């Protein structure tokens, strides 16, 4: 029995880095969804709702989501405007941050003027993408015969997964 060990840095995962990164640049668009006047939609390549919820939880962000896929909850915006979303992060200023499925991925939808998170939008999405990638690798590594042995987070935020797989020759 030979032991095969691998250390994988989550951001440089061999399973396709861009699967977890924001679309080319985090750009604001309203072409994929119909939004009220103050809401902005930022495209992502986040596909799995449960993995996204785990990423937010890892970041210490409390979010709301209904357990049944397809059911949405209301997110609050400027002057009482609302949208329906799959995941809502309530802010103290009554202008929520939300993730909403466009049928393929989850878009970040919010009024950027009232952003009240502990980091700017770009840094927030970078951290969400990192935690999403880590959780996705942990959740899917067993399909390729790997066991996650250790997850290490360096002081600079780099995450390293130590994995092993046994091969029988």
UniProtKB/TrEMBL annotation:
It is found in: Plastid. Pfam families: DUF1257. Its main location: plastid. Keywords: Plastid, Signal. The keyword Repeat does not apply. It comes from the Eukaryota. The keyword Plastid applies. GO terms for cellular component: plastid. Residues 1-19 form the signal peptide. PANTHER family: YCF35. Belongs to the ycf35 family. This is Uncharacterized protein ycf35. The lineage of its organism: Eukaryota, Sar, Stramenopiles, Ochrophyta, Bacillariophyta.
């Amino acid at each position: 029995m030979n032991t095969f060990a691998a250390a994988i840095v989550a951001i440089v995962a061999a399973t396709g880095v861009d699967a977890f990164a924001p679309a080319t640049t985090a750009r604001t668009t309203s072409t994929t969804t119909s939004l009220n006047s103050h809401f902005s939609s930022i495209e992502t390549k986040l596909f799995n709702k449960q993995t996204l919820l785990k990423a937010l939880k890892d970041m210490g962000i409390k979010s709301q989501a209904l357990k049944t896929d397809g059911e949405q909850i209301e997110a609050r915006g400027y002057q009482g405007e609302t949208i329906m979303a799959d995941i809502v992060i309530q802010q103290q200023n009554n202008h929520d941050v939300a993730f909403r499925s466009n049928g393929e991925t989850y878009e970040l939808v919010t009024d950027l003027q009232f952003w009240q998170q502990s980091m700017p939008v770009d840094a927030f999405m970078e951290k969400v993408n990192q935690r999403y990638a880590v959780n996705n690798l942990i959740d899917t590594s067993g399909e390729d015969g790997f066991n996650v042995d250790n997850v290490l987070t360096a002081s600079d935020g780099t995450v390293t997964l130590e994995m092993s797989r046994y091969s029988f020759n």
